[in-house]
Design goal:
Layout lengths: L5 H11 L1 H9 L1 H10 L18
Amino acid sequence: MELKSIQALRIEELIGNTNHLVPLITDQRDAISWLNDRPAGKAATSNCRSMPIQL
């Protein structure tokens, strides 16, 4: 059995979680704006029709 360093395991974990990590970083501004708009009384818009169908 090959033993991996803690650092190597953490890097693999980060790389494996990029589908969660990258959007968190790149979409943060839009998400915060959306959250701030709700108490300000601005209507939420929908982009559901532009999303691909997921089965």
